[in-house]
Specification:
Layout (H helix, E strand, L loop, with lengths): L1 E5 L5 E6 L4 H15 L8 H8 L3 H13 L3 E4 L5 E4 L8 H9 L24 H16 L3 H11 L1
Antiparallel strand pairs: 1-2, 3-4
Helix pairs in contact: 1-2, 1-3, 1-4, 1-6, 4-5
Length: about 160
């Protein structure tokens, strides 16, 4: 996520880079792919990788983390592959991102793994970072895979 940074008189000073890595981005794309084909049986990893233009070996690492967290099931054998462990309307994007990225936090002093800061007592910006974190989490936690599938079907 890119946010424009401006100074006090409104002059743009640069861009603040609050990013989701390829782990989160590719993992979410793979989960949407599975959700779009929900009910069609397991989808081979190779097919997901080809459709999403992602390295199969990289995607395998992401799917292992999602499987361990209980969001996908893997099926072995000739007709094997991956499928969602829950209905798409029960899987929120925030869970996927946290599994693949870790805690959501725009700055080190906010969140579950907050690092103590010697300026915390007099910090006038901490409330802003907390508000940003809460806003990001609100969006991610209120969006399901089904919401993304519905959006894709309306645009496609």
């Amino acid at each position: 996520m890119l946010l424009k940074s401006t100074n006090l008189v409104g002059i743009e000073t640069g861009v603040i880079d609050v990013k989701i890595s390829t782990r989160g981005s590719y993992g979410l794309r793979a989960m949407v792919e599975l959700a779009m084909h929900e009910g069609s049986g397991p989808m081979p990893l190779r097919v997901i990788a080809d459709r999403q233009d992602v390295s199969e070996s990289y995607l395998e690492q992401l799917m292992a983390a999602l499987r361990k967290a209980g969001l996908v099931n893997s099926v072995r054998g000739h007709m094997g592959g991956y499928e969602l462990a829950l209905p798409p309307e029960e899987i929120v994007v925030g869970d996927i991102i946290r599994i693949l990225e870790g805690p959501i936090s725009p700055i080190d002093c906010i969140g579950d793994n907050a690092v103590a800061c010697e300026r915390e007592e007099q910090c006038v910006t901490k409330f802003l970072w907390q508000k940003l974190k809460d806003s990001i989490e609100d969006v991610l936690d209120s969006t399901t895979l089904q919401d993304l599938c519905d959006k894709a079907s309306h645009e496609g």
